[in-house]
């Protein structure tokens, strides 16, 4: 299993690159990279080609290799680079995520399923961007994407997934707007 931090979004609603916001005294991508590296030795950043120069030379990067946008492109680019690997995926807009949530996810992994994912405490759907995607699940995402549907959540819902509740569900908070960024910063302090 490898780690993947999704940084390739345009952050339109946030009005700044979400991966560079310093919630924990460092850019968010670096915070997530450090978290994942404590669990998984091989961690990659997923980004658009125009973002790659912003990341330091010693950080492994997988650039979007398929036309399109959104997190599905990052996941599928990682799958294309390492088709036999499972991926623990984290979106860069998760300022409250910590090692305790990631340990719960890794400990609950069921490799015979298409994915292992938390249930979102906000809508009770699978959380595709704090999940472990197995190669079979990424194949489902690829088929869905090729048929014109690029929603990772809907692809997960079509698969055989292991869903679990996160005892630290508040850590699944997504910060996508300046107001949500401030809310996250207030909770971290």
CATH topology: Spore Coat Polysaccharide Biosynthesis Protein SpsA, Chain A
CATH architecture: Alpha-Beta Complex
Q: What is the percent of helical residues? A: 25-40%
Strand content: 15-25%
Strand order in the largest sheet: 3-2-1-4-6-5-7
Query: Kindly, what is the distance between the CA atoms of the first and last residues, rounded to a whole number of angstroms?
Result: 33 Å
Please count the helical segments: 6
Count the E strands.
7
The major pleated sheet works out as: 7 strands, mixed
Low-confidence stretches: none
CATH level-1 class:
Alpha Beta
The residue-averaged pLDDT reads 92
- What class do helices, strands and sheet pairing give? alpha/beta
Shape: globular
Order of helices and strands: EHEEHEHEEHHEH
Keywords:
189 residues, alpha/beta, 7-stranded mixed beta sheet, Spore Coat Polysaccharide Biosynthesis Protein SpsA, Chain A
Record the SSE blueprint:
Layout: E1 2-6, H1 28-37, E2 43-47, E3 61-63, H2 71-81, E4 87-91, H3 99-108, E5 115-119, E6 126-133, H4 135-146, H5 152-158, E7 161-164, H6 178-188
Parallel strand pairs: 1-2, 1-4, 2-3, 5-7
Antiparallel strand pairs: 4-6, 5-6
Helix pairs in contact: 2-4, 4-5
What does this structure look like?
The protein is α/β, with parallel strands linked by helices and 189 residues long. It has a single domain, classed as Spore Coat Polysaccharide Biosynthesis Protein SpsA, Chain A. Helix content is 32%, strand content 19%. The protein has six helices and seven strands; from the N terminus they run βαββαβαββααβα. Strands 3-2-1-4-6-5-7 form a seven-stranded mixed sheet, with helices on both faces. Helix 2 packs across helix 4 and helix 4 packs across helix 5. The longest helix is centred in the C-terminal third of the chain and has 12 residues. The chain is globular, with a radius of gyration of 15 Å.
């Amino acid at each position: 299993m490898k780690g993947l931090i999704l940084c390739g979004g345009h952050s339109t609603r946030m009005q700044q690159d979400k991966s560079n916001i310093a919630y924990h005294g460092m850019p968010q991508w670096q915070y997530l990279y450090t978290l994942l590296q404590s669990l998984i030795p091989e961690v990659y950043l997923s980004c658009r080609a125009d973002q790659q120069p912003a990341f330091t030379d010693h950080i492994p990067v997988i650039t979007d290799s398929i036309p399109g946008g959104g997190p599905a492109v990052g996941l599928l680019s990682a799958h294309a680079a390492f088709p036999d690997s499972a991926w623990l995926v984290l979106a860069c807009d998760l300022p409250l995520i910590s090692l305790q949530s990631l340990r719960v996810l890794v400990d609950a992994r069921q490799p015979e399923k298409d994915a292992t994912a938390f249930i979102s405490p906000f809508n009770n759907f699978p959380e595709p961007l704090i999940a472990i995607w197995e190669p079979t699940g990424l194949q489902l995402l690829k088929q869905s994407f090729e048929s014109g549907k690029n929603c990772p959540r809907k692809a997960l819902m079509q698969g055989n997934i292991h869903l679990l509740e996160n005892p630290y569900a508040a850590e699944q908070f997504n910060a996508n707007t300046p107001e949500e960024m401030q809310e996250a910063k207030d909770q971290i302090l």
